[in-house]
Amino acid sequence: MKELTIMNEKQSIVAIGRNGLSFNVNTADVLHRAAFVRVLLNEETGQLAVQAAPTLGPQSTPFFRLGVFKSNRIKINSRSMARQIRAVAGWGENDTDTWNIAGVYSAKDDAIIYDLQRKLNLTASCKTPRTGKKWTDISDDTYGSSRFSL
Prior knowledge:
Elements: E1 13-16, E2 20-24, H1 25-30, E3 36-42, E4 47-53, E5 61-62, E6 73-77, H2 79-89, E7 99-106, E8 111-115, E9 120-121
């Protein structure tokens, strides 16, 4: 029993492909079904954050639309955004894989933070990833929203 760890029922996963980002439905639940989000990138730490936004503005994008939502994925189609993320992560311009990353929720920032170095390749042979790595909680005070910029 020592090896068991507590799993978060609502694990947020982002898939980063060549044409943009895709989030699982749990991401919307974790962010309180926010209609708009800000996508933030920290080049120094190699982290991506998705933060709930109150309104649509120059620094936010539409996210969850209850009446329109009919899929199990929420997509943000932006090649330029995907290129910036892939460059910061060091994945290379010719990398055609889709990388999946589990996020950690920061209540202080009302944001989900993804470490770009903890990626899983699901475009390879399997659809259900199996890793020996354990997820660890990251304290909220490690991330201040002022450290993220796009």
